[in-house]
Structures are given as structure tokens and as C-alpha cells.
Amino acid sequence: MAEPVESAMSVTGRSLVGAADVMGTGGTFHAVDPATGARLEPGFGECGTAEAEQAAEQAWQAFDAYRSTTPEVRAAFLESIAAEIEDVALALAARVQEETGLPAGRVATETARTTGQLRLFAGVVRDGAWRQARIDAGDPDREPVPRPDIRQRSVPVGPVAVFGASNFPLAFSVAGGDTASALAAGAPVVVKGHPAHPGTAEIVGRAVRAAVRKHDLPAGTFNLLQGTSTDLGHALVTHPYIRAVGFTGSRRGGLALVEAAARRPVPIPVYAEMSAVNPVFLLPGALAERAAALAAGFAASMTGSAGQLCTKPGLVFVLDGPDTDRFVAAASEAVRAVAPAPMLSAGIAAAYESGVGTLRSIGAVEEVARGAIGGPLASPGEPHLFVTTGEAFLADGRLHEEVFGPAAVIVRVRDEQRLTEIVERLEGQLTATVHLSPGDHGTAARLLDRLELVAGRLIVNGWPTGVEVGHAMVHGGPFPATSAPATTSVGARAIERFLRPVAYQDVPADLLPRELRDDDPDGAVRWRDGRPETDRTGRGGDR
Ligand code: NAP
């Protein structure tokens, strides 16, 4: 079963279970080039329940040693993963393009985002605020009863299962945000690679494994399983050694995993990022000022990466007025000029065509533009732009659903009261965007006040696509944007999903974790009696 590793960038078709290369025994599957329809070599061994068990066991065995590593070791490990990915960047980019059809520029940007994300979490781990160290010192003289000494910190939850996303082969896949934040938290990871890009998954997986070896970490700290069956994902989510799940994909897939996790004898959290239509609101002043520029920006955001982004703007609400027609005409022209790009897989292309068909079948919806037709693509994603009314939107739930691909609907709304009704009826969203000019601030203030209840990120005079990875970013939102609206899957706070707070009451100093001792040698950021401690590190605290 165990095979020698050929080279850091070799694609062998094997899965990575602890230190072993494992050929799944449930048959073979191949990646497909979505631009040409050609089958790509090699074949990948299908993993199933047996391999899920082996990987979960490996991760569990690694957990004690890995959670005990110092922040410095963990930070250096994350930085090494980034460096290992950079070392194979050329071969990696070629395989990503073959397997996804994404253009070179997008692949380069996503590679930089992935390595930047790993380095961000290295900084988060070193900084120490993630541990949420809090001290409420005891008071034996307090009346009527003494106050106990209570100290708190966060600990990792245990091994995490990560589901790679089809639409982000790097930044939301094997070494993407879920993996980086789980490893930063001290949690070993078992990744189920997305079956649309298994070669990409293996190259990145080998880079992570090289970093595991470099830092002499337990082999089960990282595992990668390849397969196309839902049984594999189900086996992982229901395995008793798996303690949390990170997922990006469809609402149906995410909900299936949420249900499977809830039915376990010991239920676990599933952090699923699922579907959003990312509404955009164009206010009258902005439209009067720059209708053509708004149309160009919207068309670019809607059709970039063939619309296969979780933040693609799928609905544009326009308060009806003299400039609405100008916007619709300019947006239609911009969409007609967009060439079809390949969709990520034949399955996603078929789901897109079905979604477009549904929009076409709605009587009150008019198709005003479609992208240039033609070209030899096997799975083309032709842009489609539709227009409807606020009344139709309120009456038909199908207009509220995500169509994953380069399609969007412009909704003409008669007045602000109707707009408010619409906002009240919107499902949870990853983002909501408002375009305004100074004269729109009254309407915008009311709108933003409602939208903060709907979306995880509010954007003014920009576009929702292109998610900055940083400390303040939120990529989350109420259901169905995510299954866990109190969290984010992008940015520094993503680490919180894989941590659990523990309070230590009246524990003697020599038995306390280092960061909770009065003489903490690391000087980590912490709170005393609910207030940040005076800065002991030069990185925070009272100023
Ligand atoms: P998906 O079908 O949800 O699959 C994502 C991952 O979850 C795959 O590894 C899949 O495994 C696994 N999975 C799905 N259902 C499962 C189940 N019932 N039990 C266990 N594992 C399960 O998403 P996709 O393949 O990326 O794309 C399909 C559709 O998802 C798209 O057309 C689009 O509508 C939506 N999508 C949305 C976003 C977003 O960010 N909003 C992103 C990507 C996709 P298998 O493939 O092996 O079954």
C-alpha cells in the first residue's frame, strides 16, 4: 500500500494518509480538461470508508503532539507550506489551468492569495490574541463569598475535515483558508480534495507534506483523500475522530453534511459556505452620475471567472428612474461583448444551463443580453442578463436562488418602500453592495441599516468579487450563505471555528498553561478583568 514519494510535484493518483501514499481501491477516476473535454492522466484511486478511517486515525494520533507545538513552530510550519507551494508554482499553475480552465492571471492571483493567507495565519499564531487568554484574578476577601481565580484560553477542537471547493482550486482547497486556519488553531486536517482538480490537490498536498516533514511534525497532521463518491465525505464527517468540518460548495451538499454531522452520536459543527446571490443596489444619484461606468463594472464582476464565484453579483436592484434604461442598455452591451469562458466542469455547466433555463421560463423575466456565442469549448459558460420587476421578484422564489455562473437579473423597483419590502425578504447573503453618490446618503443610511441584518459584508461603491484576506474581512453571513452565521471562513477570525474556550478555576500556577501564568514568559496578548492588559509585547493592550 505505501509507495515511495516520487517528487514534490509528481502527480501519481495516490492519496496522502499520514506518511503513506495510498492508492484508493474503489476504482479509478480522471480529471477532465473543461476547455477541451480531454481526459487527463493519471487515474486517481477512489478512496472510500476504509481510507477515511485510516486518515481520521492518523489525524487523531497526531493531535496530542501537534496541539502541543509552540506558536513559533506552528507559524514556521505555515510559512514553510507557503514556500513549498511557491517552489512548485510553475508545475502547479499548469495543472490548475488544465483541470479548471481558469486563465493564467486568475491562477497567479489565487496562488498569491493562498500563500498570503498561510502567512497571515502564521502572524495570527505568533501574535497570540487568538488564544483569548483572560484572567479574572481571585479575591479571597470578597463578601459575601470569595471570588475564585478563573483563567480562560482557547484550545483546538480536534481533527478537522476540509472539503476542497470546485471554484477555488487553491485558496479554498487543499492548503486554502479552512486548512490554514485549522492548522493555525492546532488541529490536524483531513482534506477531501474536490474531484474536479485532483492533480492540483496532489501537488499542493505534497507541498504540505514536505512542510510537515521539514518541521518534524507527526505525519498525520495533514492527510489528503481523493475520490468522487459522497460515501467518502459522509464517512469523514461521521467519523468519531473528526471534530469539525469546513466546506465550500452547494447548498445541497452543505446541508447533507450538516445533517450527517447532527445525526452523529456526538454531533459536531459543520462550517459550510453555500449559496448567495450578492445583491447590488444602484441608488438614483449614482446612476445619474455614472450609469455607463456602473454597467461596465457590473458586467466585469458578474462574468469574471465565468461567474463561478461565491460573491458574484446575481441581482441588481435599481430604483426606477430616467437613468435605469441607460444602465440596462449599457450593461446589455457590456455583457454581449463578453466571450464565453469554460465552466469548471461539465456538471457545473449543466447546472448553470438549468438555472438559466429556469430564469427564461419565468413570464415576468425578459432576457436582454447574452454573451458572444461560439468557440470550441467543451463546457462553455455563456453570460446571460435578465430584467424583471420588483413585484415579480417578490412573487417568485425562483428569482431569489443562486445561478452559479455568468448570469444575473436586474430588478426595476418602483420606489424605496418597495425596496424595503424586498430587502426584508432577501435570504442571508455573503455580501450586499450599494452604489451611491453624496445625494443618496439618506436612502443609503436606511438601506445599510437593514442590509447589515442580511449580509456578512457590506460594500459601498465597489463590487463584491475579489475577497481581501486580512484581519477585518468577513466571508460569511446568515443562512443559506453559511450554516454558521457567527463565523467567517476568510480572514484571521476563521481560526475561531476550530477553537473551544476552556476556563481554569483555582488551578495552581505550575499547573496552568503558560499563557495563563502571571509570569507568562511569552508575553502573549491577554485580558485581565475584562480589559486588555497593559502592553507587554508592543503589539496591543492599553495605549
Ligand atoms: P458540491 O456538489 O456541493 O460538492 C462539494 C464537495 O462536497 C465535493 O467534494 C462533493 O463530493 C462533496 N459532497 C457534496 N454533496 C455531498 C454529500 N451529500 N455527502 C458527502 N459529500 C458531498 O459542489 P461543487 O461540486 O463545487 O459544485 C456544484 C454546485 O455547487 C455548483 O453548480 C454551484 O451551484 C454550487 N457551488 C457554490 C459555491 C458557492 O461558493 N456558492 C461554490 C462552489 C459550488 P463529490 O463531488 O465527490 O460528490
From TrEMBL:
<dbReference type="InterPro" id="IPR044151">
    <property type="entry name" value="ALDH_KGSADH"/>
</dbReference>
<dbReference type="InterPro" id="IPR015590">
    <property type="entry name" value="Aldehyde_DH_dom"/>
</dbReference>
<feature type="compositionally biased region" description="Basic and acidic residues">
    <location>
        <begin position="512"/>
        <end position="543"/>
    </location>
</feature>
<feature type="domain" description="Aldehyde dehydrogenase">
    <location>
        <begin position="26"/>
        <end position="476"/>
    </location>
</feature>
<dbReference type="GO" id="GO:0016620">
    <property type="term" value="F:oxidoreductase activity, acting on the aldehyde or oxo group of donors, NAD or NADP as acceptor"/>
</dbReference>
<protein>
    <submittedName>
        <fullName>2,5-dioxovalerate dehydrogenase</fullName>
    </submittedName>
</protein>
<dbReference type="InterPro" id="IPR016163">
    <property type="entry name" value="Ald_DH_C"/>
</dbReference>
<dbReference type="Pfam" id="PF00171">
    <property type="entry name" value="Aldedh"/>
</dbReference>
<keyword id="KW-0560">Oxidoreductase</keyword>
<dbReference type="InterPro" id="IPR016161">
    <property type="entry name" value="Ald_DH/histidinol_DH"/>
</dbReference>
<feature type="region of interest" description="Disordered">
    <location>
        <begin position="510"/>
        <end position="543"/>
    </location>
</feature>
<dbReference type="InterPro" id="IPR050740">
    <property type="entry name" value="Aldehyde_DH_Superfamily"/>
</dbReference>
<dbReference type="InterPro" id="IPR016162">
    <property type="entry name" value="Ald_DH_N"/>
</dbReference>
